[in-house]
UniProtKB/TrEMBL annotation, chains A, B:
Source species taxonomy: Bacteria, Bacillati, Actinomycetota, Actinomycetes, Kitasatosporales
Recorded superkingdom: Bacteria
The protein, known as: DsbA family oxidoreductase
InterPro entries on file: DSBA-like_thioredoxin_dom, Thioredoxin-like_sf
One protein family per Pfam: DSBA
Ranges of residues in domain DSBA-like thioredoxin: 3-207
SUPFAM superfamilies, sorted: Thioredoxin-like (SSF52833)
Signal sequence extent: none
Length: 240, 240
């Protein structure tokens, strides 16, 4: 079974939702048979690379919250993150473009390190004092190295704005096709969707339902006689 | 859409079937949205690592063919391979354990090089004079390097017989659960199965059918009110 998770590094509900999903997955009896793939989704796709501002400024400017409302929201998110065992800096975080990080996540996927890098980027964005947006590519190269990726290769990816850009855009198009308007968005075997950082029990229910309803395999066969295949008793003899 | 292909490096129908499938896939209008994953299947799982014999000897000894029958079969396979543009040495090939190669394919998968390595192993096994079985690990290290893998890391994988062994076994268990008794065995979105090296048109039909019948996504939702998610208009405000 395969679970695809659309998310953005800048999305606090994605950070919390990933932990809730992983709690459900760890307790799911068939978790060894579940493959998790992370997909890209930018909440703020129009933002330029170097355009960085404090989260609270962005919330008040863009969504018309008062500073007190914005800070109260951050405090609540901090409590919900703590309930999942996650660190969360409720004051002083930055907001910026996540496009380069999504490109880097696709590079990491090619090297089997996508989940590691995403967790490291979340932690860097939500829990660490250093900004993941304002220190430039070298900060991301450091984080890539932490995820076990080659630093020179990561540096080359970050230096070339077209590297893996199509993969990011393809994920975003697919999210739209699947009807996702926000993140996190979880898709199980392309059959069931779960929207938002639902409680672990909802993920347990979704995993159980999707697992139980896996359809039996339907064989598409060209002819009734033996197919051109090899088995434990030898290979079909070719009709010359 | 995802296509999983169970195969063995020692299986001539897998070599031919991969080329036929790829012909169909290249002409499939949605090929960019198709992900191909290779899965392990050993035709001769009981064979020890160093136990190598000529293919024709194995065919006569194990399946009771006459040498002339075995050679005629190889000649026919050579013609069918040539029809797909593949080289095939009809005389002098070896047979042996493919377990180490399957372990190496799982290592390659982690580094995004699985398809490249499988094609290289097929060519080494079916088309090259040097035996892929009797020269030991260093021959496989060379082939891994050709696929773009790190030679030291490949050497470490091959030196440790437990490395990726569970992944090979898990693929084989899954093949049995899906009802595959021989290879190649193609599974589309875990919904349709195609057994054997069918003509390209059968793969085209299977791809078309599986694509057309992708189910619409069913949303599993916990509650009617807004989920804890972030969208272009901001994030849901947490209920403290």
């Amino acid at each position: 079974m395969r679970v695809e998770i659309w998310s953005d590094i800048a999305c606090p509900w994605c950070y919390v939702g990933k932990a809730r999903f992983e709690k459900a997955l760890a307790a799911f009896p068939h978790h060894d048979a579940v493959e998790v793939v992370h997909r890209s989704f930018e909440l703020d796709p129009g933002r330029a690379e170097g355009d960085v501002e404090p989260v609270v400024t962005m919330l008040t400017r863009k969504y018309g919250m008062s500073p007190a409302q914005a800070e109260a929201g951050e405090d609540n998110l901090g409590r919900l993150a703590a309930a999942e065992g996650l660190d969360y800096r409720t004051r002083g975080r930055d907001h910026g473009s996540t496009f380069a990080m999504h490109r880097l996540l696709h590079f990491a996927k090619e090297h089997g390190r996508q989940d590691e890098l995403l967790q490291i980027l979340y932690r860097a964005n939500f829990a660490e004092e250093r900004s993941v947006y304002s220190e430039g590519a070298e900060r991301l190269v450091e984080l890539a190295a932490e995820a076990g990726l080659d630093t020179d290769a990561a540096r080359r990816v970050l230096a070339d704005p077209t590297a893996y850009a199509d993969d990011v855009r393809a994920d975003e198009r697919e999210a739209a096709q699947l009807g996702a308007t926000g993140v996190p968005f979880f898709v199980l075997d392309r059959k069931y969707g779960v929207s938002g950082a639902q409680p672990a029990e909802v993920f347990t229910q979704a995993l159980t339902q999707a697992w139980g309803e896996r359809p039996p395999l339907r064989l598409i066969e060209q002819r009734q006689d033996e197919a051109d295949a090899c088995g434990p008793d030898g290979c079909a003899v070719p009709r010359g």
